[in-house]
Write a structure and sequence with these properties.
With about 190 residues, the protein is mainly α. It is built from eight helices and no strands. It has helices at about 5-40, 40-55, 60-65, 70-100, 105-130, 135-145, 150-160, 160-190.
Length: about 190
């Protein structure tokens, strides 16, 4: 049987670890916001909309070709966000496994946050598959390395719906991560 002092000490360690996870997510979200701003998110999204809505407009297609480095950086940022989230949730899972011996409000709240993140990670995996993630990333790299290859640029223009979808997925992921982290902050403030 665990003594009350041992339980309190363990809970303090648990809270400290959860705080560290939450701070890591905060840092990642701040970096993502700065990166999105530096990449001129709104302008790129408008460019993608233009190509989707006017697939034969050469000016839009050329603009898309010129923007591929930025799009590629956004894809890299998205992957970093997903990796950070997976790592953070792995830590939460591990902490929860150790803490399951207590029927504690903090632990059940932590479980709900972790389940939300699990659900998000599953949705991201399905969306990556549906949006031809691997193919799109490869094509972006090809266009960056061969920006004058018109065949590659046209292929990218044809995939602009998928690229736009990945932009939208990235924004959704950031919003849902922010919500989950707000729940973590709330749990931590109640301890």
């Amino acid at each position: 049987m665990i003594h009350r002092n041992e339980q309190e000490e363990y809970m303090n360690q648990l809270v400290s670890e959860v705080q560290r996870v939450s701070e890591g997510i905060d840092s990642m979200m701040t970096d993502a916001a700065r990166s999105d701003e530096a990449l001129n998110w709104a302008k790129m999204l408008q460019l993608l909309e233009d190509v989707v809505n006017n697939p034969r407009d050469l000016n839009s297609i050329i603009g898309l070709a010129r923007a591929t480095r930025g799009i590629e950086r956004l894809f890299q940022r998205h992957q970093l966000v997903v990796n950070t989230l997976a790592e953070s949730n792995g830590i939460l899972h591990s902490l929860l496994q150790e803490a399951m011996q207590w029927d504690d409000q903090f632990c059940s709240g932590l479980q709900r946050v972790s389940e939300r993140i699990d659900s998000l990670m599953t949705e991201v995996a399905h969306s990556h598959e549906a949006l031809n993630w691997a193919k799109t990333v490869q094509l972006l790299g090809d266009v960056v390395n061969n920006p004058r290859d018109i065949e590659l640029v046209v292929k990218l223009a044809r995939m602009s719906r998928d690229v736009r979808g990945i932009y939208q997925l990235h924004q959704n992921v950031l919003n849902r991560v922010a919500e989950s982290n707000a729940l973590l902050h709330q749990l931590l403030s109640e301890v």
